[in-house]
Structures are given as structure tokens and as C-alpha cells.
Amino acid sequence: MAFEAARAGDPSGWAVSEPGPIATEPLRRIRREVPAPGPGEVGVRIEACGVCRTDLHLAEGDLPPHRPLTVPGHEIVGRVTATGPGASRFAPGDRVGGAWLRGTCGVCRYCRAGHENLCPSSVYTGWDADGGFAEATVLPEAFAYPLPGDADPAQLAPLLCAGIIGFRALRRSALPPGGRLGLYGFGASAHLAAQVALAEGATVHVLTRSARARELALELGASSARDAYDAPPQPLDSAILFAPVGDLVPVGLAALDRGGTLAIAGIHLSDIPALNYERSLFQERDLRSVTSNTRADGRDFLATAQRAGIRATVTRYPLDQADRALADLAADRVNGAAVLIPDNPSDADGS
């Protein structure tokens, strides 16, 4: 793929050119000058960036682009290289994380009530501004997370969206202490949420079409792992739908015990078929969506992950194979989370 015209030495990356099926190669390799950090921003040399299903939705057009040639990626781990005017949280050399939520107005009724994830003026990394499928980027320091400098960056990257969103979905599922949790789909987000639930004493049942994912679920401690359309071995107190498949909504609801809750974790979902009230919602079963996250979610999850020893299963790709990583994600060939590694950082060991 041709590089966009830019000065020699400018950092390289990938941008969404013409959204469409992954087979049409919607990503374009580019070189682009990274702007100097503005007020309240930090410049970041990227060490690793996780590949999220939201990136796939953007590339394929399920999410309409907000700007042309946007660099995807919102699970960013890197080192601060420069600070903009007024930026004081971080210093050059600090390791930081950039996540999906990039900015909010801070004054609307949602922000003031602690629901900044619902802010009508919210903006997002890799959708409204260039993200982490690149060697360098700029992040607003108010929405960046401090990260341990001695950890493997590839291990940290999936925590910044897959982990945070899975954590919020787990809380939205209203899982009672010691409860029975069903997870529909078992990719990057679900395999982290499962570890949190298990650490908190839950019984976890995994429902997914991927045989490799079922093996991983059992290795991590799930009590059962079956096909996505199978019934779990016992009624569920709570369930989370990670797969972007609307057909699974009535399946998940039918698996709930009385008073159970199904939370839908994705930003995109295919159409939900008609629901039969008596079979799906009666007996006070709840259906909830999950929208982005708050910074408090991020802080709480990262603290929980460190305390509970949550560990991501990762498949590493060089940055120049970002298109292959997305294709593998689309075809369910990724075990755990896909992570891009630029050439510029020193790579750490880990899996």
C-alpha cells in the first residue's frame, strides 16, 4: 500500500481509507507528522497498541467515520516524549495508557452526575482523533492513565479497553456475590472479565463458537465452555453478551434465572430478533446496554487487575501487519487479544 506524502522520518501508521469488508483492505499505510502536544496534552512514543473489535467496526463501516483517514487504535501504551502547555500530570519518560474515552464537556448533567460516558459531547481515541495504530501519537493527559514502567507493554495494552469495558459490563450485569455468570463470546474483553469474576468468587460459564476460545476459558477456570447457542448447565444470575450478534440476545435472556440481568457489552450489534415477553423478559429479567466507560471505571479496573493478578493472553503482531491482525480478528483466529508492536520500542517478553 502506498504511503501518504509526508516528510522523510515522520512516524508511520495505518489509517482507515475506504471503510468496507476487511477483504477489501480498508486500512491504508501512511506516514504522517505527529503534531506537537497542545494545551493539556502529552506526546507519546507508542510501545504497544491492542486491536479491539471496535477498530474492526470502524474499518468495515459499521461505525461511520468521524473524519477522513483516521488512525484507529485505543488501547495505547507508550512513553511520554513531550508535554504541552499546562500539562503537569506526567513527565517525559513516564509510561501512560490511552483508552477509548478521550474527552467530555465536563459540565453537562451527565458529567456532573458522574456519568461522563453518556456525555453528548464525548470524543473517542481512534475515531475522533488519531489513535495507536502508529509509532507515535498525542493524548489529552486528563484522560490518560499512569501505568507501571516495568511491565510488558503488550500485556498492558488490552487492559485499556477490553479490560475496562469488560469490567463495566460485569458491573452492569449486576452479578451477585458468588453468582453464576454466563459469557457469550470469549475474546479479548471476555477473557479479562472472566478473570475478575472468578477472582471475586463467581461461577463462570462460557458460550462461544470458537473451540480455541472454549479451551482458553477452561484453562482460566470456567466451570463449563459450550457453543454459543447451547444452554449453560445451570440457570444464570447474570450474563454478558460480548459477541456482536443480535440473535444471541434471546438466547442469553432465556438462560437467565428469575431476576437475572443480561448486559450487552459492544458498541455495535446486529439486529435483535423479536422477543417473546414471557420467555425472554417476564419474571423480572433485565436487558442492559453498556456505553463506553468513565475514568473511574478505568482506575477501578486497573487497580483490580493489579490486585487480582489479571493477565491477558495476547497474540503479537508487528505494526506493519495491522491489516492482518484485523483480518484475523474478523475471522476469529485471535486467541485472547491481538496487540500491535511498533519497531521503535524495546520488546519485552510475555505471552
Automatic annotation (TrEMBL):
Enoyl reductase (ER) domain sequence ranges: 23-340
Q: Which domain of life is it from?
A: Bacteria
**Which species is the source of this protein?**
Actinacidiphila yanglinensis
If you read the UniProt record, what top EC class would you report for this enzyme, in one word?
oxidoreductase
Record carries keyword Zinc: yes
Annotated segments matching region Disordered:
1-21
Q: Which residues form the signal peptide?
A: none
What is this protein identified as?
Probable alcohol dehydrogenase AdhA
- What is the E.C. number? 1.1.1.1
Keywords tagged on the record: Metal-binding, NAD, Oxidoreductase, Zinc
Q: Which InterPro entries match?
A: ADH-like_N, ADH_Zn_CS, ADH_Zn_typ-2, ER, GroES-like_sf, NAD(P)-bd_dom_sf
GO molecular function term, any single one: zinc ion binding
